[in-house]
Specification:
Elements lengths: L1 E2 L4 E7 L4 E6 L4 E4 L2 E3 L2 E7 L8 E9 L2 E9 L12 E6 L2 E2 L4 E7 L6 E4 L2 E2 L2 E6 L2 E5 L6 E7 L2 E11 L2 E5 L3 E3 L5 E2 L16 E6 L4 E5 L3 H6 L5 E2 L5 E3 H5 L3 E5 L7 E8 L8 E10 L11 E6 L6 E8 L3 E9 L4 E10 L2 E8 L6 E8 L4 E8 L1
Parallel strand pairs: 1-8, 10-17, 18-27, 19-27
Antiparallel strand pairs: 2-6, 3-5, 3-7, 4-6, 7-8, 9-11, 11-15, 12-13, 12-16, 14-15, 16-17, 20-25, 21-24, 21-26, 22-23, 22-25, 26-27, 28-29, 29-32, 30-31, 30-33, 33-34
């Protein structure tokens, strides 16, 4: 017995001179009555098939030792919602760093469930219309862009290329529940930009608080809850930053815990390479403002294939402890108590014998701790 994917109802006649029973092997078929004596009939109700695949069941009649089976085959229902496989016709830009906003054009985007660049999921995506999606690139590898919906996956013909960039870990700043911090205080160690106007892009935010754009400096200092919260992919100008209108506030219980915010800036702003700036935050038990810092940390190239250089500029002599930790938390390299003098210092770690993956470079001068994410390709 063949049934349409939309389901249906019907009746099966019974010819018998004895008592009989009827049952279904699947819950999506219901029968009434399920027993009787002599001639009669059984009404069946078959539910709609929720899948695009054909499914099967049996209705079994029994009278004593006699069995009769009615085979039921129900068709699948492809594209029940009218969804068709996504088609990608174009996207721009075709290269960038984590945090880059990518505009994808095509068709059948309404029911999109995931977007990937290479083998990595995007940091976020927004369905602007059935023909356009805005994607924020996450940390990943170069590759084609794929969009998936219930009907299948569409893949671009061209690749998105991750550009070379430097991850720069900035000195930690202190923030208390009643002491929001103007973000410019964390970026004072950056070199003088080569251009007058540029944008910072929010790459990641902190679970312990919010990055906020205020309409004026007074509101920034007060950190009013009504101000605009910046999300991943949002941008703000260097002029807003310098005016003190970009602030970080926390509602978390002060615990001394560490947290980070990541920002990206394009190539040509501070150097030829683009940069990901890691702003380190420490939640304080009191409303302490950020203190003066004495170190700037650079780790490059990142991503890397064979070696990575740790570079710092320190105004005072000190002792550093540097270690490389894999994603499982195992220390794979350790530079023990490397004594540094004031001025520019470099130390290169060789990575040729390490497998590709994500690592963390931890550096401490005994007072402050810096952690930078590192990708070995």
């Amino acid at each position: 017995m063949n049934i349409a994917g939309s389901g249906g109802i019907g009746q099966i006649g019974v010819v018998s001179n004895a008592a009989w029973t009827a049952r279904s092997t699947q819950a999506w078929i219901s029968l009434t009555p399920t027993s009787g004596t002599g001639n009669g009939g059984v009404s069946y109700t078959i539910l709609a098939n929720p899948s695009a695949d054909t499914r099967s069941a049996s209705i079994i009649f029994s009278a004593g030792s006699i069995l009769k089976t009615v085979a039921v085959t129900q068709a699948g229902v492809p594209n029940q919602t009218g969804t068709q496989q996504p088609i990608i016709t174009d996207f721009t830009p075709t290269s960038g760093i984590p945090g880059t906003k990518i505009i994808i054009s095509g068709t059948n985007f309404s029911a999109t469930s995931s977007v990937k660049i290479g083998n990595s999921s995007s940091a976020s995506f927004t369905i602007d219309s059935p023909t356009q999606i805005t994607v924020i690139a996450a940390q990943g590898s170069s590759g084609t862009i794929s969009i998936t919906n219930p009907a299948g996956t569409g893949i671009s013909t061209q690749q998105f290329i991750y550009q070379t960039y430097i991850i720069q870990s900035l000195p930690s700043i202190n923030v208390g529940m009643n002491a929001p911090v103007q973000l410019k205080s964390a970026l004072t160690t950056l070199p003088t930009p080569k251009v007058q106007q540029f944008n910072y892009t929010v790459l990641s935010t902190s679970a312990n608080g919010s990055l906020v754009r205020a309409s004026d400096t007074q509101k920034a200092v007060a950190a009013l809850a009504s101000e605009s919260v910046l999300k991943i992919g949002d941008t703000f100008t260097n002029e807003e930053l310098n005016a003190g209108k970009i602030i970080f506030k926390t509602n978390a219980k002060p615990s001394g815990a560490n947290s980070t915010i990541e920002l990206s800036v394009p190539a040509g702003i501070f150097a030829d390479d683009a940069r990901v700036l890691v702003v380190n935050l420490t939640l304080m038990a009191t409303g302490v403002r950020d203190a003066q810092q004495s170190h700037t940390i650079n780790v490059y190239p990142n991503p890397t294939t064979d070696a990575v250089t740790f570079e710092t500029v320190t105004e005072t002599a000190g002792t550093w402890d540097i270690q490389l930790v894999n994603a499982l938390g195992t220390i794979v390299q350790h530079v023990t108590q490397s004594a540094l003098q004031s001025g520019a210092v470099k130390h290169t770690l060789q990575l040729q014998n390490l497998p590709p993956g994500v690592y963390f470079l931890d550096a401490s001068d005994g007072v402050q701790h810096y952690r930078t994410r590192l990708v070995k390709q």
